[in-house]
# Entry
Amino acid sequence: MTTKAPARTPWKAVLGGSVGNMVEWYDWFVYASFATYFAASFFPKGNPTAQLLNTAGIFAVGFFMRPVGGWLLGRFADRRGRKAALTLTVTLMSGSALLIAIAPTYASVGYFGAVVLLVARLMQGLSVGGEYAASATYLTEATPPGRRGFASSFQYVSMTAGQLIGLGLQIILQRTMSEEALSSYGWRIPFIIGAAGAAVVFYLRRNLLETEAYDEEARDAAPAAGEAGGRPAHERGTLRQLLQHKREFALVIALTMGGTLAYYTYTTYLTKYLSNTAGLEKSTATLVSFCALFVFMLLQPAAGALSDRIGRRPLLITFGVGATLGTVPLMNALSQVSGFAGALALSLLGLVIVTGYTSINAVVKAELFPTHVRALGVALPYAIANAMFGGTAEYVALWFKNAGIESGYYWYVAGCAAVSLLVYVFMRETRDAALSRSERGGRETVPASARV
# Structure
């Protein structure tokens, strides 16, 4: 009788997939965190809220490009491999960050600067639309059963780390540069850093190896002479194959809507909310976001590991209940805070609730689909949900504020969370899904790319 070795966490795969994801999301979130400084650079002078609405609108446009990126790069990942897709996405992100860094202002070229900003955001949307799926699929497939929730949680660890780096840089710049200097040219510095960082990650990702699940699928599509083959390569990652999984497609959209809306409410929009609504100083609001996000980042692996023990649905349901019942009173309380301590405590409460979704949403989606459409199945419906709910969160929130009915946004978030809660209650548990032939045979194997 042989004893099965305990599953090990493949740290090389986790780190390899996460470091690029960190730079991707640093560039993505830097736009939102520095928008208050560069909003006036690309649009005529006037109402500051109207200027923020314009930059938030361009931010949202980037999200509407994400379904296109999810389709193109998800298809690419299913056909050409997870590694190739990860390398391509970070290349696109480097180029888009560089474009923003050199974009001319309204004072020098009129609205052409805003057009350059828009093109850069479209490139970012294309890149991030594929990055989420490629990263989620890679981290999930490269990890043995029993450790997937823990390993895939590092996707949001790296996403949050990227945002923390951006916020940390903002805090440094706020304390070393004047408000005028930041609004004039200082806001370009983080985009230059982002472009350089993405270029470095390009070389790091070229050294990643493929996952066992994808290699297995590729081998089946290219059999030796005289052998019967599996699914032809040209059928991998196609919409026709994906539409054979309509239920899972709809499930990803529904389970994402509440989670992504709550996530962007308590992350990218939080700094502006604390500044514009609660009346905190910009520097104080930024510090609150930084501290809250740091704790939030540390919570992700613990929650992911918990899901490996008790399942994914209990965490999702906990988030759904908390967001449905807690959003309105929590946002009302945040609007009344007057200092750092109170704002931090309430922000942390919101992010603890959101952790039930963020820590495991990537692995849940990957576990719903078979290998030949896994990247596309994760990418496209997730990107659609983000375009509809996550990308518009800041714009909708500012629209409600500008209309004088800001509390309407709180009810909007709670309502979307309630819809997702219904999905969590009735969906199947995915923790024990087999992602490859070896797992279906009961063998827990670690792919060559992940062995330490």
Q: What stands out?
A: Confidence is low (pLDDT under 50) at residues 1-6, 224-229, 442-452. The chain is about 75% helix and 0% strand.
